[in-house]
Amino acid sequence: MMVLPICHLSHFGIFFDYYRTLIINQKLKDMAKGNIKVTAENIFPIIKKFLYSDHEIFLRELISNATDATLKLKHLSTLGEIKGDIGNPIIEIKVDKEKKEIRIIDQGVGMTGDEVKKYINQIAFSGAEEFVEKYKDKVEDTGIIGHFGLGFYSSFMVAEKVEIFTKSFQDDAKAVRWECDGSPQYILEDIERTERGTEIVLHIAEDSTEFLEENRITQLLNKYNKFMPIPIKFGTREETLPLAEDAPEDAKPEKITVDNIVNNPNPAWTKNPTDLKDEDYADFYRELYPMQFEEPLFNIHLNVDYPFNLTGILYFPKLTKNIDQAKDKIQLYQNQVFVTDNVEGIVPDFLQMLRGVIDSPDIPLNVSRSYLQSDAAVKKIASYITRKVADKLISLFKNDRKAFEEKWNDIKIIIEYGMLSEDKFFEKSDKFALYPTVDDTYFTFEELTEKIKPLQTDKDNNLVILYASNVKAQHSYIDAAKEKGYEVLLLDSPIVSHLIQKLEGSKENIHFARVDADQIDNLIKKDEPKISKLSEEEIAELKPIIEEIIPTKTYSVQMEAMDSSANPFIITQPEFMRRMKEMQATGGGGFMGMGNFPDMYNLVVNTNNELVGKILATKTKKKQEALIKQAFDLAKLSQNLLHGEDLTNFIKRSFELIK
Ligand code: ADP
Ligand code: MG
Q1: Where in the chain is the domain with CATH 3.40.50.11260?
Q2: CB 425 within 8 A of CB 386
Q3: Distance (Å, rounded) from C-alpha 173 to C-alpha 109?
Q4: Which backbone phi and psi does 280 adopt, to 5 degrees?
Q5: pLDDT tens-digit profile of 532-547?
Q6: How far is the CA of 529 from the centre of ligand 1 (A)?
Q7: The model scores a pTM over 0.85
Q8: Contact between residue 310 and residue 384 where contact means Cβ atoms under 8 Å apart
């Protein structure tokens, strides 16, 4: 037995400086070639504390290494560098609670003693990088996972001692055993072993015994390794064989014990889209989110290998108010290894409500999120995803408009958010964004403007698009607009005021107005002369009488000569103020620190309505006041503004009137 010291460096700082350089420069290959032997007095406590905040990832790292070793073996075999049959190698996980051991066993390339010295003893000298470097020209993508050169050492986050038993695939290779207890010394010795491959034995530390629980391991395998490319065995299970057709009636089905393979090595996203049916996508959705019972609306298969490598399947879910919504998120994989379900910075914000999988080895992960967002490759990935989603929406719209219209209310929030936040998406959205009317007709923007041009162009040649946000609450205003033959859209998503603002800014001569923003003739002003039944003097006399009774801080009185059949008093809320207030409430728009916009309303008095004339003609002050109050309250009632004491008084007064 020989004991070799790892070379000593004087200071931990060197390790951190190196790691920082690695983070910033991403020039891992160059560094490794420069033969940096990174270490410190005792590096393991540092690893344990700082390197990975999530201790549980040790298993992912070790299974990734086992996978790499198996993929290398397969690769060498296809290149003809290994003679003979390599069989169907699998990876096995064993847990021994008594002995406090976890074993990760593979049948991959294994390591010679020299390789152990080179790849295991020299931290940050990533063998995977070197392998890919060496063979990169021979086969495009080997699917090898290792990147960071620190994966193996994550085992010291949970183990007080680690052993490696390994035998290289090379013909004359001697098997070796390596052992290290986390101190800077290690043991390396020759052993007898006939099987090719590597067995890692973790002697679990006192503070990590949770990982000796079968449930915990199953949970980890399910989280990180569910779709890894080499079959992973964890325990065995019983399977009942089907009875033969000619079996006697009292025959008992035979039970056999089989390997319990925990992963699906060929998940849908790794397959060719042309080989998949709708059903396969639906099945994969259930495989990803077993607890989701709602079917997704549609999916988008991502598949690109230049200028970056990315595969995946995204699903548009039916958005519900369910709070669990946030739980099933897009999962990010690298070469079929789960990395995270926080795809912030990689997937554009507006698509984070989607579900599914993205797999890309080209996303740098050992960097901060803010660095990620400024990374050129990552930006390209985000814009590729945006483009694919837009293209899919266009084709769905074109191929089956009716089905698309039926889905619209479930997807509009995502689309509207995308139109607001991504200019490229906004440009394309003209081809699929829909504008439904209160009567459930769905227009594209172009169709809408064509349709309403003749009637809804005002005297200044602006096209006025009328909309409602709530069919019930704005019923009387919608009615008044329809009376004139106008179309009224139903725009009811929370961010719609932002979207309207953006549409007005990007298209010429259009203007949006909510139906209750003014009396209808003012919303779309025509050059028609207005004839008022009341004279100018009478109007001048009546206005202050009304102003004396209503709270003028919130309501400003506006005398208008309208249709005599239109209501005498109408409360409106000016478009601009209301929209700004809504935008402020939903965030964005640069309103920070501007204070709250007050609620401002207009009381429109229809000087052509008979009642208004009657109010003016009423000579008893008390009677006149009662009429104004009653009319004002009715107007408030139709805007849902009558509450509390005012409502109580109104009801009392109304009963008095009908007595
Ligand atoms: P990386 O995977 O990024 O290369 P690791 O620290 O995880 O870094 O592993 C270091 C190296 O040790 C690997 O690149 C590989 O050469 C070697 N190695 C680790 N585990 C195995 C294994 N199970 N079989 C063969 N070689 C392995
Ligand atoms: Mg690794």
Answers
A1: 434-523
A2: yes
A3: 11
A4: -65, -40
A5: 999 999 999 999 999 9
A6: 86
A7: no
A8: yes
